[in-house]
Amino acid sequence: MLLLALLVVAFFILLVGARSIKTQIDLLAFASSDNLGWNLSQLDVDYRGMTIEMLEPITPGSPAGGEVTAEEFENIQRGFDIFYNRVKVVGATLTRVGVPDVIQEDFEKIAIARDEMADLIDAMDTPTTAQIKELCDLANALGAQVRSLSTKGIQHLSQIQSGAREAQHSAFLRFHGTSFVILGFVLISCLLALFLWRDWEKRSAQVARAATNVTNAVNAANSAVIFTDRSGKITQCNEAAAHYFGSERENLVEIDFIHALLDQSSLSSFLLYRDRPKSETIQLLARRSDNQAFPVEMSGVWQKDAEDEDIYIIYLTDISERLEAETKLKASRDEAKEASEAKSRFLAIMSHEMRTPLHGVIASLNMIDTKHLIDADRKLFETACECSNRALEQVNSILDHTRLIQTEEKPLPVTLSRVVKDIQHALIPLAAANNNTISVEFLGDGVDASYRTLPDAFSRVMYNLIGNAIKFTQDGTVKVEMIVTRGKTANTRQLNFIVRDDGIGIQEEDSTKGTGLGLSIVKHSLAQMNAKIALQSTFGKGSSFRFTLELEMVPGTAPAEVATTKAPPAPVTQGATIHDDTAPVLIVDDNPINRTVLREMVSRLGYTPVCVTLGHEAVTTARDTYYSLILMDVNMLGMDGHEATREIRSGQGRSANTTILGVTALMSQDHNQKSESGMNAMLAKPLTASRLTAAIKEHVDVEKHQSADHEDITDLMDPVTARELKLQSLTDARTALRILSDPTSTWTARFDAAHYAVGSTGIVGFIKLSQILSESEAAAKQQDQSALENSVATLQETLAE
Amino acid sequence: MILKRTIVKIITILTLAALPVVAHAKDGLTVTNDDASIVLDRAAVDNLPQQEFTTTTIWTEGSITFSGPSLHAIISVAGITEGTVTLTAVNDYVIQIPVAEITETTPIVASLMDGEPFNRREKGPYWLVYPYDSDPAFQTEITLSRSIWQLVSISNIAPD
After folding, report:
1. Which pTM value belongs to this model?
2. Residues A309 and A335 in one domain
3. Contact A46 B91 (CB under 8 A)
4. What are the pLDDT digits (tens) for A550-607?
5. In this complex, do B90 and A82 lie within 8 Å of one another by their Cβ atoms?
6. Whose CA, among A492, A497, A730, A792, lies 20 to 30 Å from A689?
7. What is the ipTM of this complex?
8. Pick from A78, A92, A96: CB nearest B90
9. Nearest CA among A447, A420, A308 for reference residue A749
10. A336: domain CATH number?
11. What is the tally of structural domains in chain B?
């Protein structure tokens, strides 16, 4: 802008200067005043010419001799006419140019004299010498004036001309000055232009450098960079691209990227990615010029080029090596996993192999009649019992631990309070053995709700914590608390579990090591539920273990079938009398030791044992004979336990509906659920007489003698345990009553409470109570308010008794 | 028009050729083409195609209407078509004009001022004039010096 303004100003000044110069030059061109100078000088010349002609006739010795010839007169006339005209011209010029009065006066005198002479000449016809002389005198008298006029005129003229020259001079001077100003402007303009040019050059250089840098960066990149137009035609690419596709850069240009360089299978995903830009990369299959496919990772971006056309820039990375490495990594991971599994399998097998003979030892010891032993032997016997039991416990723990690592559990909805109660019940006998009591307390809103968590892991934790507490406490109390508090959202709850005892406590150095496998299992299981165990312990005063679970509540769902890991049912005192049952018991086991032990055990329980060693044999004999019970080893050579069970159940044989109890060393605890093959329950090896009795009670007797109520399990127990159990069942019944009569409790909670109390009271022989509770249970199930109220009233009366 | 003018010209030439060579005839204008000279008297001059314009001059006062044949017409009568013509006045003032610079209409050999013949005292009887006011190009020194008055002869022979 400034440059333009400067140039405009310079141009304007130049125009004005040039105009004034032109005026001056024009003045020079019209040399009108100069003509006056010529005329003035000619005036003198013409005057003299005329006088010479006039003197000719009157000069002595003239050819005519006193006569004026016609020729002479003609010459005089011509000379005068010339002079006459000259005077006229000078007069007109003087008037036009303008002259001082002095000159004007001179001229007027001459004009007057000229006219006088004209009159004289015009009057002459044939002039005489005298007449010519008179004319000549007149002319002579004019001489001084003519001289003066031409002299003064010329002088005046030179003054005018010198004035004009001065004017021209100053005009040129002005122009000269103006030229300098213009020059200045032009110089500034030049400087400005130079500056602008330099700046432009610098910018161009920067742009060029930036472009070079980009080009270098693109070329040096390890990834292939490819520029395509809208149709997918390559407009540009870098070295890496040429290298990738095994071609030359110039050969790739103009090629259709989509159809020539991509594998057919990647076409649609490329187009989808290109037309719906996303930030992440995609994996494609590209093709080299030799048609060999290779995997690439691609990202792309739309840009505008210099002509504002859309271009698509593609970045490709060859990932064949990476994928290869990943494959290798996966392989080695799988290998490691396999090795770990092999180790676990080995451990499981080892445990199994060790347990089978141990079972034999324990079962045999179990059956030795100790009454006849002398004291020293009895001590040795007790040591043997204790050692074999401890060895089995260790093996079981290892097995447990192995299984723990192997299994991957899925979260299910579980009513945790019920699980806790189940475990409490299961452990009451163990507690009683150490003269301990277990109390359970639930606090907070959502105690009875179902939560989504890992049921087995939770059961393991509670079982081990409570079991440990009982083990390390003598004549004390184990308190289990479950406190429900608000969670982070409306649907979640914080469940705080505390297991306290007033036993010996744990010394600090021990607490870090943990107490054997039990605590290790707890830690591992809690880790599966994203929780941690916290321990507070004072040596000699007791310990408290606590952990917190933040769980999602499952609203409105009935508590799921709780897969609790059932603790061994209440131990039954040895030598308990079993009702007589005429039908024999079939024992199926391919291991002779097991067979012997089981046969002995069954016969001691009052049944008639029948032994077979193979699954086939079992199926055959079960078809022909009715057995009151079949004890089926699960892992057998040939047809295994499950297969045999399926055969027996599917056939129409005499024992098709007989209770079948699976016996296995692959479990450390009994399992009360029906197996898919049709076994009523699974019993863990080594089977003790007490657990077998309990199982028979539960699965055989309950079924057969549900109405025959004379059988009371408490008869099978020692009096202390029996009392504990009875008290506990009464507590359960009261809890059920409280929940049933509470108008705010849900039907599900009522059903659960009643159901629980039915089992609890039934097993200890409170038949009436159990019956009333079962009515309540039915009412709760049907959500029948009046029926429930009736049964609750009866229940209240009965309990009061 | 052109045809008519051409016919007039041919007739004029034939007429002039028939005339006897008379020196110093009254208001005579001598036109010389190499060895051949003709003298045009006033009637002959007036018979040529006439041009007319009005202009001021630096030598006179006021505007004057000049009329007379063009110089081109006069030299054409003598058959001069190229070279340089020399014009001479009664006082021996001599000027030269290249034929190439003579157009068909300009300059003119004026024989009338404001419709009147003019005598020797008034720059007559013939005055070579240009239409000075019509163009600044006719105000240059060369043009002014060529404006010869009291014209007596025209020749294509260079003076000594």
Report:
1. 0.39
2. no
3. yes
4. 888 887 643 333 333 333 333 333 333 334 446 788 999 887 777 877 887 787 777 8
5. yes
6. A730
7. 0.80
8. A78
9. A447
10. 1.10.287
11. 1
